[in-house]
Design brief:
Radius of gyration: 16 Å
Largest sheet: none
Number of strands: 0
Order of helices and strands: HHHHHH
Distance between the termini: 14 Å
Helix content: 55-70%
């Protein structure tokens, strides 16, 4: 089974599937892009703090839509609607439940959101 690399995830989320809210995304795609998003936020926050300018909200705008779309596709991969993302809005426990939900393995086989991406990675025969 092949796994998506950091650069593959960044390229996929920032170009070909920038605003694609349909289909499925494997765990590797979601977590690698989350790492990129978090890293970008940390760097921008550090620069903002160093130069005493509020850059964070404006500088992260290009990452918001791809982060939302990969999150929705990841939920689809586990057989859930993208609306399950709203669970993160519940104070204290919501973000924990959301992140735990993102660690769940893919639904085997096709589901209502598309064919399994895991099956595509496995050799035939």
């Amino acid at each position: 089974m092949t796994s998506m690399s950091f650069t593959d995830a960044a390229r996929t989320c920032l170009t070909s599937k920038f605003a694609t809210f349909s289909g499925r995304a494997r765990r590797a795609e979601y977590w690698w892009f989350s790492l990129l998003y978090t890293g970008a936020a940390a760097v921008i926050a550090g620069v903002s703090f160093a130069i005493e300018a509020p850059l964070l909200s404006v500088s992260l705008l290009p990452f918001v839509v791809p982060m939302l779309s990969v999150s929705v596709r990841r939920l689809h991969d586990t057989g859930k609607s993208g609306w399950h993302m709203l669970i993160a809005l519940i104070p204290a426990i919501g973000p924990i439940v959301y992140l735990l939900g993102m660690t769940v393995d893919s639904t085997p086989g096709a589901n209502q959101y598309g064919p399994s991406l895991q099956a595509a990675d496995q050799p035939v025969g």
